[in-house]
């Protein structure tokens, strides 16, 4: 949903529910004056609002909720390329956010990276999407939700260098005389030819590098005196940024790479960790009622192709928490 469309629907919702400020009403009237289609949408929504019965019984509210979920799920089955936008309002005039479809979509751009005019390519997987691309040297890269890489498109020079913000899986083309290097804000991964995953989101407290096959060498920018560390297949190196603490352990690598298949698998993960992943997957904001809730732990699996309701109702079934939504904001309480 475009930001302008979402804001218009919020204004309509506030107007109908009696919560609009004078500024809200003036802004809505201005928008309707400029766009007759918006005025038509407002009138249709107002008629539906007036014709709705009030108050509602619990059974009616539950039935409305199920109908709304069915509409949203149907909306999610439409391909992004059709660019169809769905305006769905609760009878209580609360706007529901529509999670983005999982798709192999990406944004590619080029820009000069220095006064010398050197060109840097940028590939971004938008929020709610996974991207897959092949670099000029034949290296395959999968970008997780909201991830960006920057690199010299020709990948010429002594080293093949990629700068990463977020999480990506690399299947590196073998070139023994030209190492492949992945830089993040906290670490450097150096390889010759291998398959590995790097998670380094700027809003998370730690980075994680998982080696699936081959061999990699890790250098940590916050530990300048620390010798580079070599990982063997099946190992994961986690680095807690604030504590400057490094941990290396054996792991089931699929737990950290299943996102390429549109799955998020967690074993004994706290709710705070799960919430961060859901926010990235559905481009929403999730609020927890108190700090104690963050430390409840879970085992399970979420599939990105499913909708946000499935994840929220799984949490409801396994905890004492309930959820409520208002636009892109979700409260667990």
Characterization of this structure:
- With about 325 residues, the chain is α+β, with helices and mostly antiparallel strands.
- The protein is about 25% helix and about 30% strand.
- The chain has helices at about 5-15, 20-35, 35-50, 60-75, 255, 270-280, 310-320; strands spanning about 105-110, 120-125, 130-135, 140-145, 150, 160-170, 180-185, 185-190, 195-200, 205-215, 215-220, 230, 235-240, 245-250, 265-270, 285-290, 295-305, 325, 330.
- It folds into 3 domains: about 5-80, no CATH class; about 125-255, Sandwich (Jelly Rolls); about 260-330, Phage tail protein beta-alpha-beta fold.
- Strands 1, 2, 3, 4, 5, 6, 7, 8, 9, 10, 11, 12, 13 and 14 form a 14-stranded mixed β-sheet that branches. Strands 16-19-18 form a 3-stranded mixed β-sheet, with helices on one face. Strands 15-17 form a two-stranded antiparallel ribbon.
List the helices and strands and how they pair.
Elements: H1 3-17, H2 22-34, H3 36-51, H4 58-76, E1 107-112, E2 119-124, E3 131-134, E4 140-143, E5 148-151, E6 160-171, E7 180-183, E8 187-191, E9 195-200, E10 206-213, E11 216-220, E12 229-231, E13 235-240, E14 245-250, H5 253-257, E15 263-270, H6 271-282, E16 285-288, E17 297-303, H7 308-318, E18 323-326, E19 329-332
Parallel strand pairs: 6-7, 16-19
Antiparallel strand pairs: 1-2, 2-5, 3-4, 4-6, 5-6, 6-9, 7-8, 8-11, 9-10, 10-13, 11-12, 13-14, 15-17, 18-19
Helix pairs in contact: 1-2, 2-3
